[in-house]
Amino acid sequence: MAKEKNQEEIDEEVEQFRKDLGIKEKPQKQAKPDFREDLNKYSSIKHVIGVVSGKGGVGKSFVTGQMAAMMVRDGYKVGILDADITGPSIPKMYGVHGPAYGDDKGSYPIEAFDGTKIMSINLLLDDEEAPVIWRGPVIANAVKQFWTDVVWGDLDYLFVDMPPGTGDVPLTVFQSLPVDGVVIVTSPQDLVSMIVKKAYNMASMMNVPVLGIVENYSYMKCPHCGEKISVFGESNIDKVAAGLGLPVLGKLPIDPSYAKKEDEGKSYEIVAPFEPIMERILTALN
After folding, report:
1. What are 145-204's pLDDT values in tens digits?
2. Which helix (H) or strand (E) holds 229?
3. Which of 120, 136, 137, 268 registers the highest number of CB atoms within 10 A of its CB?
């Protein structure tokens, strides 16, 4: 029985074979194709931050809006690209309505009361309540156009509010936009470990840094005594984050006043604990 060759012997034979053929240098590895789309030429965006969740119903759009509002309060120029095409909620939260207008330069985002620039499919529809019944490729193309065809102007930060899960839109955003990092939003339930890991693994596979985790609906305070109540049970987010080597950026409470402000289109007025969250995000970016 022939002796099995080790890797060193195989490499030597391959090298000798290459010399016999007159090949002097090893072939260069082919670079991975770059699918990134060009930003609208009348726009300049310094940082792009994606906001993702492994499942729906965790308040991802709320967290997106609050992070953007916090940055505006700190003096930055901010925009929100609402990539949740079939379930847009950012315009409602900010109290903005279409139609967005355009010219030969492109389409223009609607500016909210606090100065945040917003582009969402709802700002392009004649009827805001009309369902968007599109297949995946059409939805993905619409998201690309929000990057290539929208005149964002000069922005310090663009937040991308993505639909839940790991489907077409997150894949399109990760491939097409120069995402500096993503924030994962979750809630304190038993399935959080699996859900967070799915979002984390997708970002890792696409070579997109994960800046950290925000836990929404973490607790609520008793209106009478101020005691913290874990409505969804005790959180294990610290353990999950530690296992992934990620920081917990913040834990947000259930607060009926938040929902009221969102319904009124004044989510930017919410005084939530986002200052430390944004400080940690900026630290992670730098």
Report:
1. 999 999 999 999 999 999 888 888 989 999 999 999 999 999 887 577 788 888 899 999
2. strand 228-229
3. 120
* CA 42 and chain centroid, separation: 23
Q: What domains, with CATH codes, occur in the chain? A: 36-285 (3.40.50.300)
Closest CA to 265 of 39, 69, 104, 19: 69
Rounded average pLDDT over 246-261: 89
In one-letter notation, the amino acid at residue 115 is: G
CB atoms within 10 A of CB 101: 9
Helices (H), ranges, the chain: 7-20, 60-73, 90-94, 136-148, 168-176, 192-205, 237-244, 256-263, 275-285
Contact 139, 85 (CB under 8 A): yes
The DSSP bridge pattern shows strands 117-119 and 44-52 to be: unpaired
274 C-beta neighbours (distance < 10 Å), count: 22
Highest mean pLDDT among 28-32, 57-61, 178-182: 178-182
